[in-house]
Structure formats: C-alpha cells, structure tokens
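Marked as duplicate of an earlier ticket. Keeping the data here for the record.
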Amino acid sequence: MGLTMVNINYIQKGLLFRKPENQDFAIATFLQDLKDSLSVTLTHFHPLAARLATVKRQDPPSLILFLNPENSPGARFIHSTVDLRVSDVLEPTDVPLIVQSFFDHHKAIDHDGHELSLLSVQATELVDGIFIGASANHMVVDGTSFWHFLNSLSEVFRSKTQNGQFAPVSRPPVIERWIPPGSDPILTLPFAHEHEFIDIPNPPLLRERIFHFSADSLSKLKAKVNSEQGRIHPEPGFDSECSTTKISTLQALSAVMWRCVTRACWSPEDQETGCRLAINNRRRLSPPLPDEYLGNSVQTVRRDTTAGVLLGRSVGWAARLLHEMVANHGDKAIREFVGFWVKNPYVYKIGRMFDSNSIQMGSSLRFDMYGNEFGLGRGVAVLSGYANKFDGKVTLYPGRDGGGSIDLEKSFNHQPPIESPKLEIISHCFIKPQIISRESQEPIYISPWDLAMLNINYIQNGLLFRKPENQDFSIAAFLQDLKDSLSVTLTHFHPLAARLATVKQQDPPSLTIFLNPENSPGAGFIHSTVDLSVSDVLRPTDVPLIVQSFFDHHQDGAYDGHKMSLLSVQVSG
C-alpha cells in the first residue's frame, strides 16, 4: 500500500565499517566499484531509478501517482568526508546527531520523490572508517525490499572478477504490484490537489540511544515469559481462539519495552497506552507473496490497554497480548484492511499516528543487515538517519555479536538543560545514640579491607516517596519521629556516630586510623526543601543533576570522616 506512505520520510539505514588496514585499499577504486555495482543492481531494481509523477483527474477530483522512468537522471550517489573516527560515533552514550548527515534526503517525505531521486546511496569517509548509507522512498519499498536491495548491492560488489565483470543479482526482485482481486489496477487518491493531504512531519529534537541485549539474556527473558503462560488466567482482552501460545523473543522484548516506557512516563492508571508492531504481510497472504516482492507489503497493528492494567500485570501478560495480536493477523485481516482502503482511500499523517504514551516497534530481526560487507569485512554498527523518528519509536537490529543478540535503538524527546531550582537547607543537627554504653565509648580499629577504602567516596543511596495525601500528615512530626528512630538505631550502630582519628608513629613511620567516639557530635541530620514535584525527578531521560544535592557529603571521600560525620541522613521535601 505505497500510496498510504506519501507523507512518510524516506527509509534511511546504513552500516559503519572500519577501513581496511592493507595498503592496497584505495578509496577512489572502492567508490568506482560501488558506483558500478549500483548500476548493475539498478538493472534489476529499476523502479528505484525513476521519479514520481502525478496525473490529475477532474471528474471526480482525484490524483494518480505512478513511477515515471522518463527523463529521470537515475539514483543519486554521494561521496562525503568527515573528520571523525569510528570511536567518535560508537562511544558516546547517545547516537551523535552528525550521523543524520550520513544520509541524503534529510527530512524529505516520499511525495518529494517528484523532484528528488527515489534512491540515494552516500559513502561517507571517516578517518579510520567508511559509512555506507542508503535513503529510499518508502512509497516504493518497505523494510524487506530495502534490505533486499542492499543485500543485492553488496552481493554484486563482491562478485567483481579480476577482469572487472560483475555477476547479476541472484535473487532478482518481483516488480509486478499486488492488487486485490476485483480492484482497479490503477488506484487513485480522492483529492483535487496535493495541498489537501501533504502533512510534513516536524517532530521535536530527539535523542537516540542504542541498547544491546545479549543472546543469553534474551533466551532467559523468552523462557521466563513463556513459563508464565500457565499462570495467566483467561480474562477480558485475551483471545480464546488463538491457536498458538509460544511467545517469540521479539514479542517478549516488545512487552518489556512497552512496560518500561509506560513506567518511565509515570502515566496515570487510567491513561491509555498502546504498542504497535510492524508486520510483513508477504507470507501471511494466501497465496503468499514472494520474499523478493518489491514494494510495500507491511502493516502496523496495535494493541491498547491502560497504564494501570499494563503495569499491574506481569510481562508475560503483556507479551501474550502482543502474541495474540500477531497470531491473528492473517490473510483475512489483511484483505479486509486493503479492501477498506480501496473504498475509503487515505494517507498516513505521522504526526497524528503516535503519542508519547505508546511505543512503535519498527524494523525486523529477520533482515540480513550484517551480511552486507562490500569487501570491507563485517560492519561494526547499523545506524539510521532522521527519518520517521518520534518519542516512543523503537528500531530493532540483529545484534552485531550475532547468535540471537539484539541491538535496540530508542528515540527520546530531547530535554534541553534548564536551570535547576536551588535546594534550601532548613535545619542541620547531629543525632547521638539514645543509650551510651561502655562499648560505644571504646575506639574501634580499622581492618585492612576498611583501610583500602580511604580514597573512596561516601556511599550515597536513598528512596523517593510520594507525600501522603491525608490531612493528618505533619512534616514536623515525621521529622521528629525520624530523628528519634535514628537515635535508637545508632544505639546498635554506634560506630556510625563516631569520627575517624589518626595516630602517627615515627619508628617506623606509620599511621594508625581508628574510629574515635570521643567528642563526636554524632551522625548528621538535615532537613531541606526543593521546588520540584516527583514527576520532575522521574520523567527526564537522564537523572537530574539536582538529585546529587539530596545527599550530604557531596564529593567527600572516606578520609574526610576525620572532620565530618560518618553518617548523614537528609530528608528533602
């Protein structure tokens, strides 16, 4: 259903390689071979060398969009350079924004294919690497067709013989479009002008982070989720007619991501949340389409529930919802969807399709991404461009390590640094043990394991709570109870109410460090306030820096316990 994609961005995916270390490698030769390989590959994938064209009809008003090879200059090829190393791309926590410049047709939508090439291949030369990125019009190809093209391009590149000949593509694409039986072979959009449906997506600045899941961790997750099946009782929402029960790794991981994102959003219990999965329809049709079918045969399906229900049940429950949704998506559902569209044509408007309370799982683990080597060896990373990103988008890649591992790219709304509110200290006092025993007044000498920690920072951990909503709660009474509880507890943990002390010896020169309870005012107790809500702490992608001020002894090392309390309890309200 390529016509639905007219407002969608081009597909932008590529691979990062290390430059060969052998002296025979020449970038000029490599680029020429890549161009020649592209030309051979386009002989089979010739729709990608065309342009879009539109014919307007008046009665009734409608538009016919088609691929027009006439007067098209072909697919585009770009060579670019950047003063970066492979490590500059891979080591940052977030995917660097400059990766977006490794792809042509930045921010272009498919309708721009009237003027822009439908395919652009860009080879970006790094100091010690090469990135090969492709941008392809999503009206012409879906993910399956995109990677089929790249696999074919790499295959042709590697087939070059010593006399400069290239072998043809071993799996040529099937160009003939699939049209539902009984439908007009020429499908139209019910508009008089493009302005009636063009909707250019303009998402906010996003951050992208790649998470690596090992094959072992995914195997354990899949086993855990499937083991929960026997403990999930039928209830509203489950399909009792679902013929299969074995949950896949993708469904299990999607359920985990759905729950994690919902929890991170801190959504109210009644907030609706959904998970979308992109499904390849080729093999689900009867009769099936060949894997080599060139075009769009992908459909997004969605399952909804509320945040309270999703987080109140197990990950196995969520995975079961997704599993049943996928299992029930077959020939009948696909034909009903296409039949409805033929009678009621529409185009996707990406800005209206997604919300920050839901996630979209894109791409597929079945795509052969790392099989594209271009004579450079196995790639070190698969990366994507700007296209079709929004808060909640998750892009899946087969893991670089192979063996069933997965690399997952998550997009987040970018939260620019803001001036943090200041934390105000209301009171500061010291708390001594409630009962002073003879034992608590004796020095305690440090063990070798303790002495090894002299240069280590204090341990700083704490818990965040919501304030009780009942009117009987009094912060003053709460603080006094906490002080009293601390005093009682220190009766047993009296070393924490002491200070460090050091005795110097001259012959031989040495230091004896011990805990000295004498003249120690006790453990510290601080009451502070800050103009923040719980959501201000939990919602950001990164933990706010102000959280560091929720703890006493900021940046202090253990040796500072000579002058500072060995324990400090801080309550921030």
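See parent ticket for discussion. The chain has a mean pLDDT of 91.
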